[in-house]
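Step 1: inspect the first sequence and its tokens.
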Amino acid sequence: MDPNLEWWITVLAAGGVLAGLALLARGLIDYRSAVRVADTSTSTISALAAGEVRVSGTVEAAEMTLVSLLQSAPCVYYRSTIGQGGEIAPVASGSVEERSCGFRVRDATGNIRVFPRGARVDAPVRFDEETGALGDEPPGLAIRTGAATRVSEPDRGTAIAELLRVRNPDAADRSLIRRNDERRRSYRETRLEPGDAVTVVGRALPFSDLSDPVAADYGTEADRLDDDPEIAADVAAARAAGSLAVDADDAWGNAAIPGFGIGRPVVAAKIDPAANPLPLATPPEAALARSTFEIAPETLVLAASAEVPLLIAYGTPGAVMERSQFRFTIGLLGAVLAIVSAMVLAVVLGGGTAT
């Protein structure tokens, strides 16, 4: 056999094995998801009891929403990927950005808070485009220009200020894009947005049982502050010295007052005497702030645990199972591809085609 042809067959066969195994692994994951969804009956939120549950409803923002990287869309989860030449593969370090934040799911009977730490999220593709032949950016691409989060229900003054803010297109967060790269780029973004139908399978537990509600409210390891060695060292030193605050009011000060972040604190904030005092929230504003930012200890929430993983999937239970079963079928085809490719690879490496 021609050595060049043999080399190409070896490369393609090895690629077939890897691709087939990847499809099989993805298919098995989706099969487990389908089994979990099928084996757990849907409960109405008003009738939930502690333990493993399945709820289905509509996504509602909690205290804040995220701003997606590629389209600047308000959402509670996004995964943004920038690739080259139509491939969804990193073009630079950090070219895949994934974030999620806590949100609520509402059905006809009520709503429940979801803490996404450790969750497997199955979100729909909202944007999948490439640069043009001349390097022009695709329609719909709106690289984020500001903060990655925003208050879900800003007050009137904040909303007006946001509308009047002058935006500099050159200030967009383009650190993930190599502008001097002549190859075509591909953009792909999956998101869960307020108003989406979702199915969530996880553990319902009292809010007081969460060991770290702040960490549980952010769904990716990239958001963990305790992963930073310097921050971890500072926390350890403060804990050893006994100076680590154990009370939220002592630790956060004014930031612990509901409504303070939007300029309408429910109680008077401690500020410099020379500063203008903040107006107190009206009773309706105070009630909204408390319902938004405070969770009673006995309130049931949805979160992941060591025994019960958290699954957040786009769509109704029937749609989730149908999608997972289809991916499992693709995974089985991937297994066939891997087996055939492995047989070809064995023949080539064993010299079985030599003449």
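Step 2: inspect the second sequence and its tokens, then contrast the two.
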Amino acid sequence: MATFSTAIPKRFTLEDYHRLIEVGFLTENDRVELIRGELVQMVAKGTLHTVCNTSLVYELTILLQQRAIVRGQEPISLPPLSEPEPDLVIARNQADRYLSGHPSSADILLVAEVADSTLKYDQEVKLPLYAEAGIYTYWIFNLVASYLEAYTQPYQDLQGNFGYVNKQIFLPTASVTLPSFPELSLDLSRVFPSYEA
């Protein structure tokens, strides 16, 4: 009688992932990110997503000028098994602009995702990933409901699940204070596509 074993998927470390890129197995055209050791195909972005993300990067770059580094759709390093590419990151200034390595959780002041078709994924997969990494502030620009979901203060519950203690909703006509920069606020009407000035 034949016995069958259950196939165990290969989990990649950050080192494995970078090696796949170095040898050319993965290229920029592959549009994947490493999430908890798995290569995850990134979803194609529609017009609403693209306009919102472009506006977000533009507005934050103007607001922050040389106070921090604004990165759009670039990798962050969450060892040992994740290297997501969030839609936006505000990272601490670094002289080499992270040439020496992608920002890690200690460098990140804010991570944000723009979500329409990816909303459930950003809420149920990315949110606990960022909380587990200790990223203090996570924003989801919810294009389905047309508001900003702002999460702060990561925690782990008794069952080992990660999340955020605080969740605030900001309508697209509101302004929101930037984390680590209480003197600066972002006018959301300049970011959400249907509310652009």
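Step 3: confirm your contrast with the notes below.
The radius of gyration is 18 Å. Helices lie at 14-22, 47-64, 119-132.
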